[in-house]
Amino acid sequence: MSDIIQLLPDHVANQIAAGEVVQRPASVVKELLENAIDAQATHIKLIIKEAGKTLIQVIDNGSGMSVTDARLSFERHATSKIKAAEDLFQLNTKGFRGEALASIAAIAHVELKTKQDDDEVGTEINIEGSEVISQEVCVTPKGTSISVKNLFYNIPARRNFLKSNAVELRHIIDEFHRVTMAHHAIKFDMYHNGSEVFNLPVTNCRQRIVNIFGGKTNEKLVPVQEETDLVTISGFIGKPEYAKRTRGEQFFFVNNRFIKSAYLNHAVNAAFEGLLKDKTHPSYFVYLTVDPISIDINIHPTKTEIKFEDEHALYAMLRASIKHSLGQFNVAPVLDFDRDASMDTPYEYKSKTAQTPTIEVDRNFNPFKEEKVSGSGSSSFSGKSHTSFKKESAADWENLYIGLESEMTTDKSVENNFSSVEFESTEVTGSLFETDEKKVGHHTTYQLRKKYIVTTIKSGMVIVNQHRAHQRILYEELLRNITMASAVSQQLLFPLTLSFSKKEIELLTTVKEQLENTGFVFGELSSGEVEITGIPSVTSEKEVAQLLEQLICDLESEVPDSGFSQTDLLARSISKSIAVRAGVELVSEQQQYMVNSLFACTEPTITPDNKQTFITLTVDEIDKKF
After folding, report:
1. 441, 443, 444, 445 alpha-carbon torsion, rounded to 10°
2. How far is the C-alpha of 388 from the C-alpha of 522, rounded, in Å?
3. Strand, coil or helix: what is 511?
């Protein structure tokens, strides 16, 4: 039998490696930005066209590369970051495996321009599908400029798996956030299709967070600071009242590298225990600094997961430091039984000295020398000072009836005075069973536990879940309004202004037209705020913020592409947010309207999420219970 194992060609091996390293345009952005940071750049510019499918360009003013280094950087496992296997446990850089540029060059057209500070001219290299097309001298400023064009041009199947431009741009912005927040001492610029998206100057950590997520983020942040032998914890957490339904503003950084850790996330949630509303998540921007020996970075292809040497101690320290910050800045409620605000010194007496109180005593006072009056008689004692105290007689109650007898005798007979007296009868105000003929037949529904609506049908009875039923009714109504653009909007006397991050506003912009068809009327959509001048008639003003937060959460998690799926997701999200909840009391007319509207739907049996809306009990099933 002939040999069947063979070595793969380099371009095939590079394409296989690209499957791990480059999953979408955002992966290329992450690798190129990290390379620029490792090159000691102080100003990095990111230029995107068509969400990275056409062009991803990163320009930095770093150290640049020599001619040999520029050529070797595209070879597999060629790196300047490590020299031996032991260096993997002493990493202070971002990239270290030497696969990024080789993988990117295997599936795109790459143009590299680089120049060191001491050189007079730079180097330009053009690569297409791992093949070097040209290498020549060029004039370029100090640093490196790398352009990645036509991503996945030679792998059409991978290119077909890419989402829409709006979705891919959101992923790029996510990666941009993660890199820029870890390096606030570097200036970052980002452009998409020629327009500026971000301009982040050199600043401190708090201001960098505010520049990314909007000006109103500043008032939401509470600093966290703790230093131990094992770890140094710094950063900020969001106040509990600003907790969101989305998990978008949750960031962990270990040695300035973004990571994901469900274990550490649980530690943060444990610190917020009892302070958050149901189904809300706290915001946090936590920076951990540990000894590189105590962590293993190389356990995940994208390096977003890290193995810690002592996770339990780290969990306890993180939880304790966050609880300490919540208490220190009076975010968590504190019970102080000793302090009484009414006992605080008034401001005008703050600088005055306290006066010693004086006591005056009447030394001649003798209670036994005074006259005392008792019920049977009175006895008096003589003395120098004589004071008499007289008690009013309680027998004066007879004066209340003076004249009553004469008034009664002026009438012809005493009995006539009681002829008009009405006696209060014991009237039955309710009964177990309704007997009023006028009311019989009108109350065909009954609300059970403020959660279910019970009504009768020919074969027995129906028990309707009011929240799920209303969700189905609103869902079909919203679908009709979006597709036919016939929604009724109620104008607000004072416009609502809600704060969102740029990424969240980008999400709302993608579904703005469908939202307007449901009844929303938008004013100005600025970089950090959304102005709303009209809302749908089926919702109230206080529900708008929660509704839009839930919608953003659903859009981020489900990531719809086509117009139809966007419309369906929009209708499902809004109907779920504004549907009447369990615990709300409904009057008879509302109960009847909900039952009639449910059975008028095209699909009354299930909710948009495929949950049952009602159950039926036949007479035979009820008879079997007896």
Report:
1. -170
2. 84
3. coil
What are the extents of the domains in the chain? 10-200, 213-328, 447-616
Q: What is the CATH number of domain 213-328?
A: 3.30.230.10
Class of domain 10-200: alpha beta
Main-chain phi, psi angles of 369, to 5 degrees: -95, 5
DSSP secondary structure letters along 123-142 = EEEEEETTEEEEEEEE---S
pLDDT profile of the chain (626 residues), mean per 10 = 77 69 88 90 94 93 90 79 63 68 89 92 91 92 93 86 85 92 94 91 92 85 91 92 82 91 91 85 92 77 78 92 84 59 64 80 79 47 46 56 58 52 54 46 76 89 93 90 78 86 81 86 80 86 85 73 71 88 88 91 90 91 88
CB 482 within 8 Å of CB 615? no
Q: What is the C-alpha separation between 616 and 578, in angstroms, rounded? A: 26
Q: Which of 388, 266, 269, 275 is nearest to 329 (CA)?
A: 275
| Measured distance CA(444)–CA(440) in Å, rounded | 9
Neighbour-count burial for 378-397, b at 16+ CB within 10 Å, e otherwise: eeeeeeeeeeeeeeeeeeee
- Token digits of residue 17: 């490696």
Q: Which residues have C-beta within 8 Å of that of residue 221, sequence separation ≥ 6?
A: 206, 209, 236, 237, 238, 239, 285
166: left (phi over 0), alpha (psi -120 to 50) or beta: alpha
pLDDT tens digits along 398-432 = 666 666 655 555 555 555 555 555 555 555 555 44
Return the pLDDT at 225.
92
Q: Report the sign of the C-alpha dihedral through residues 243, 517, 554, 254, in that order.
A: negative
In CATH, what is the architecture of 447-616?
2-Layer Sandwich (3.30)
C-alpha–C-alpha distance, residues 362 and 379, integer Å = 25
SS3 (DSSP) at 219: helix
Dig out the tokens for 585 from the structure: 């009391």
Cα atoms in the Cβ-side hemisphere of radius 13 Å centred on 427:
4
CA-closest candidate to residue 57, choices 199, 163, 191, 217: 191
- 183 is written with which tokens? 């390096």
Q: What pairs with residue 57 in β-bridges? A: 47, 147
